[in-house]
Structures are given as structure tokens and as C-alpha cells.
Amino acid sequence: MPASEGWRVGGIVDGESARPARTIEEAAAAVPEGATVRLSLPVNAVLMERMRLPSTDREELGGMVVLQLEKSMPDTGDEVTSGFEIIRQEANDSELLAIAVSNEQLDSLCEPLRASRGLPDEVSVFAVQFAARFPDEETLALIFRESDSTILAIAQKGKLVAAQTCLTTDREEFLTELPRLLLAAELEGAPVNFSRVAIERELSGWVDGLRAQFGITPVDRVATDGPLERGPVNLVPAGWTLEQEQLARKARMRDWLALAGLIYLLLLLLAAGYIIWMQRQVGAVDAKAVAAAPAVDAIAQHKARWSALAPAMDPAQFTVEILLQAYKSIPPAEPGNPASDLHITIFSQTPAQFMLEGEAPNGNMVIQYENALQANPNLKDYHFEPATMENLPNEHVHFRIFGKL
User: Fold this and answer.
1) Which SS3 state, helix, strand or coil, does residue 192 take?
2) pLDDT tens digits, 232-241
3) Which pairs from 393-397 meet CB under 8 Å and 24+ separation?
4) How far is it, in rounded angstroms, from Cα 343 to Cα 43?
5) What pLDDT digit, counting tens, does each position of 311-346 carry?
6) Poorest-confidence range of 151-155, 288-292, 301-305, 369-373?
7) What is the DSSP string of 203-228?
């Protein structure tokens, strides 16, 4: 906290002692990411009021405390964050210490933290936390400095019951003001018969004067640095809680987006690796195809050669055999008209097909002849296309039939 305003800077980062900082900016810069920040306020930064209220229900007490504080503070309820610690309870009454702080003052103070790593997770009062170190003390006076002031805090069983501020750090001036501070605390209802007085270690030169003031009451020196107890009152404004939740959601969203981006990048890398692997596979297949091309060409040439020689090697494709089967497939002559039989006039053959050309008395005989060719088992390897026919002047039909392998 700013030393010029009397703030005490230092404390705990995740349970370990932090190096004291001179300003809130320096402290904010030194806080590691994700650390828990607990802010302790000085007495003169808050309003403390000792109250006695007719209730023991904590929720009812909270409403009563707000109403009482609104009478004491110029700010409205929405501009103030408050809390209370119960000192003592009886059958129907509660004695408590109410604490309130201005939200505007907190926002201004914690702006460096907000800008660097986020707002504090806990806001308490140093005097309250310091008193909590002594839960076994019946009535304890605590004297310590906060910048240009000296604080007289009164604790019972580890609970702060009153705190008075003396606007000086001079020993003689404080000893002069001490009777007035004790009287003010007594008028507020705080006990002033102390079992012990504890002063911060740096005030060692004040021991004799304090012993003279308090008589036989022992005066001991204690350390004010080191770990602080968690305060019973958390003065974090409601707006901060909402802001922290929004920041947490944004952080989670950033984490999810980063994870999604990482997954997307991994998918891209996997896809790129798969494409590279496929390209290599295709390249390997292409290389094998190129290597096998001469063998494939040789096989194709052998096939073409065997196809060319097939008519000479396969008896079913011999020209004489085909002519014989073509002759055997000619339909018998029509009864009473033997001169009108079907005649083959031209025969030609290639390795892939043969052609029959001739003349028939009519188209029906040509169709019968074509069907007979198709049904001939010795010509089963050939596919016959529909015959083409032309009428001749002598009323006969000229035909052409192709048989293809």
C-alpha cells in the first residue's frame, strides 16, 4: 500500500512470507499469477463502531448493523461494504464490533492490483487480524504504528473490541495522549484493565514509559510481520465478487479457446501428416507402376499376338470350320420351292469377327438363319448382331450377318 498514506505493505503469498513492498504498485507487480491476495486495511481507513443490538440471529444482526452504520456514514448502503464480529452474546442481546469501508476508497486503492493480476480475494483490517493472534489473552492492549499514527487496539480472547488512533509516532506525545485514548475506549464500553500489553518490536524504547503508565501490567514486544490470521470480516465489495466471477469465466473461456486451438492445430498436423503419408503411398504405387510398365507392355503384346494367332490355333475359329458351321445352320428349303433356298455369296474373316453375306427368298428365312447361327454350339464364342437386309428386284432379300468375338 502507498507508504505516503500510511499503508502497511507485506504479508502472505500462498502461506509464505512475502518480501515487504513500499507501494501498492510494487506489491501488485510482485504478486505471482494465480496467487491468493489478502488485503489488510489500517484502522484509519475504516469506520469501527461498537454496538449492542437486541438479537442473536446473525442475519437479523446484519440488517441492524447496516441501518446503524447508515446513521454514522455519509455514504449510502450501496457505496459501503460492512461486516461485524460478535464479541459477546447473552440471551437476547449481542455485543459486536461493526466495521465499514468506502467502496470508492477500495477501488482507488486496489486499481494497481486490478490492472496487474486481479482484485484481492479477501479484505480485512490489520488490527482485527493482529488481535486474532492472541486467542488466550483475557484482555490485551496492542500498540503498533500505522504510518504517521500509533494505534491502541484492545483485544479479548483474540477478538478486537476497540481501536483508538493517535496521530503521532513520537513516544512522548503518545504517552501523553494515552490516558485520553483509554478513556475514549472505556466510554465505548471496552475494558481497560489489561492482563498484558503487547507492543510491536520496533517500539522497544517505549517499554519503560508504558510500564510506568500501566503500572504492574507486563509489557512485551511482539512481531507484527509474518503470517496474519484470516479476518472474521471480509470487506470485499459485492461488485468485486461479480467482477472476479466474470474474470474467472473469461479465464476459463481463454483456457478452453487455447485448448480448442491446440486440438485444432493437432488435427491440422495429423491431417498434414496423413496427406504426406498418402502422397508417399501414391508415389510408391506410381513407382511400382513405372517399374511394372515394361512387364505390362510385354503381357499386352503377348496377348495381342495370341489374339492374332487365335484363329490359327483354335479349331473353332478355323475358316473352314466356321464355313462348315455356317453351312450347317442354313434353314432347310421351303417345301415345293427348292430353288428359293438361302445362299451364301460372300464370306470374310478377321481375328475379331467374320461376315456372311448372301441372298434369301424372304426375310423370315434370314431371321431363321440368324437364330440358327446363335443356337449353334460350335459358334458359342461369337456374338451375332441383328442382320441387315435389303430387298432385291427379284423379290429376294440380300442380307449381311456379323459374328463377333
Assistant:
1) coil
2) 888 888 888 7
3) 396/340, 396/359, 396/360, 396/361, 396/362, 397/359, 397/360, 397/361, 397/362, 397/363, 397/365, 397/366
4) 133
5) 666 676 778 888 888 888 888 776 665 545 788 999
6) 301-305
7) GGGGHHHHHHHHTTS-EEEE---S--
